[in-house]
Specification:
With about 325 residues, the protein is mostly helical. It is built from 22 helices and no strands. It has helices spanning about 1-10, 15-25, 30-35, 40-55, 60-65, 70-80, 105-120, 120-125, 135-150, 155-160, 165-180, 185-190, 195-205, 210-220, 225-235, 240-245, 245-255, 260-275, 280-290, 295-305, 310-320, 325-335. Helix 2 packs across helix 3, helix 13 (about 195-205) packs across helix 15 (about 225-235) and helix 16 runs parallel beside helix 18. The longest helix has 18 residues, at about 165-180.
Length: about 325
C-alpha cells in the first residue's frame, strides 16, 4: 500500500497504471480494486478506459478469473461510453479523448472468457444481469466463443433461453469456436438447430484451418441446394480462404459455381494465383475453360497481373476474349497504359 501511494505521487499516468496492474497481479486483483476505490470517479473512469486499451492480461481479466461479478461491476460502473469525453487529470493517459471504438466490447470478451474459466454457470447467470449495450454484446460473444470451444453441451440450453437477436449472435460465435476444435460436430449441431447463423459460424471456424474440407462437406451435404451453398460460401469467406491456401483446387471449384457467381469467383482465384504463378494459370485457362463469361473473367484477371511484365502477352490474351466489346475495351486500356 505504501509503495502504491508513492507510485501515485511520483509516476506519470501510464507508469502508474502499469504499477497498479502489477500490484493486482503480484498481490491479488482485489488489492487493485481497493486502490481504485480511493480514487475519484474521474480517475476510476480513466483507469477503466486504459483497461480497454490494454486488452491482453489487464487486471480486470485476472479479477474475473476469481470474482467475475466484481470485475463486471467495476467496469460497467466506471467505463466511459464510446462517445463520452473523459475528464482531464494531469498526468493520466488518454485525457480529453473518447474511449477507443469497440473498447467495451473487447474488454467484455476478455472478462467473459476469464469468467468461464472460473465457473461457466456463474458466467452464464451473470450475463443475464447485464444491461443492453456494447459491454453486454461483448460479454455474450466471449461466453459463446469460450463455451463453444470448451463446453459446447452448455450452449444449447443457454441459447434456447435467449431472445432472437442474442440467439443469432451467440449461435454464430459458439459454432465458430466449436468448429475450430471439432468441425463436423459443430456443423451437425448447426443443422440440427436449424440456425443459418450457427451454420455460417461453423463453416467460418472450419474454413479457418481447412477451407477445402469445409467447402467439400457443404457441397456434398447440400448438393440439391446449389444457390444456398453459393450464398453460404459467399457469406463465410470459404472460397477466399481456399484461394489463399490452394488456388489450383479453388480454380477448379470456381467452375462449379452457379452461372451468376462463377465469373466473379473465377476472377478472384485467378488474381491470387496469377500473382504467384502466371504460367500455371495460363495453362489451366487453356486446358480447362471454354469460351464464355467464366473464361473471360479468368483472362481479364490474368491480364491485370502480367500486363506490366509482359504487355505483348497481355494483348494476345485480350484478343482471346469471347465478349467482343470487352476485348476492345481491354485492348484500348493496354494501349494507353
Amino acid at each position: 500500500i505504501e509503495a502504491m501511494g508513492w507510485a501515485r505521487d511520483n509516476l506519470d499516468g501510464e507508469q502508474f497504471m502499469h504499477a497498479l496492474q502489477a500490484a493486482a497481479e503480484h498481490v491479488n486483483p482485489r488489492f487493485g480494486l481497493e486502490l481504485l476505490a480511493d480514487m475519484s470517479p474521474a480517475e476510476r473512469g480513466q483507469f477503466a478506459q486504459w483497461a480497454q486499451r490494454d486488452k491482453e492480461n489487464n487486471f480486470l481479466h485476472r479479477l474475473a478469473a476469481s470474482d467475475p461479478a466484481a470485475a463486471v461491476e467495476f467496469f460497467v460502473s466506471n467505463a466511459p461510453s464510446e462517445s463520452e469525453e473523459v475528464a482531464d487529470r494531469d498526468g493520466l493517459p488518454g485525457t480529453g479523448s473518447p474511449a477507443a471504438p469497440g473498447g467495451q466490447t473487447g474488454t467484455a470478451i476478455g472478462i467473459a472468457r476469464s469468467a468461464v474459466g472460473h465457473d461457466p454457470q456463474v458466467a452464464l447467470e451473470l450475463s443475464a444481469t447485464l444491461p443492453p449495450g456494447d459491454f453486454r454484446r461483448g460479454f455474450l460473444l466471449g461466453l459463446a466463443s469460450e463455451l463453444g470451444r470448451d463446453d459446447p453441451a452448455l450452449v444449447t440450453p443457454w441459447i434456447a433461453g435467449l431472445e432472437a437477436g442474442d440467439r443469432a449472435l451467440v449461435s454464430a460465435a459458439a459454432a465458430t469456436s466449436w468448429a475450430e476444435e471439432d468441425p463436423t460436430a459443430a456443423v451437425r449441431w448447426a443443422l440440427e438447430s436449424d440456425s443459418p447463423d450457427a451454420l455460417g459460424g461453423a463453416l467460418t471456424g472450419w474454413g479457418g484451418h481447412d477451407p477445402e474440407g469445409a467447402y467439400r462437406w457443404l457441397v456434398g451435404e447440400m448438393a440439391d441446394q446449389p444457390d444456398e451453398v453459393a450464398g453460404l460460401v459467399d457469406r463465410t469467406g470459404l472460397f477466399e480462404q481456399w484461394t489463399e491456401t490452394d488456388p489450383a483446387s479453388a480454380f477448379h471449384a470456381a467452375q462449379g459455381f452457379p452461372e451468376d457467381l462463377a465469373p466473379e469467383k473465377m476472377g478472384q482465384v485467378t488474381r491470387v494465383w496469377a500473382s504467384e504463378e502466371p504460367g500455371a494459370v495460363s495453362s489451366m485457362i487453356n486446358e480447362q475453360l471454354q469460351p464464355g463469361p467464366v473464361r473471360d473473367a479468368a483472362v481479364v484477371a490474368l491480364i491485370e497481373e502480367i500486363k506490366d511484365e509482359d504487355p505483348n502477352g497481355a494483348a494476345a490474351w485480350a484478343r482471346s476474349l469471347s465478349d467482343e466489346s470487352r476485348m476492345y475495351s481491354v485492348l484500348d486500356s493496354l494501349a494507353t497504359q
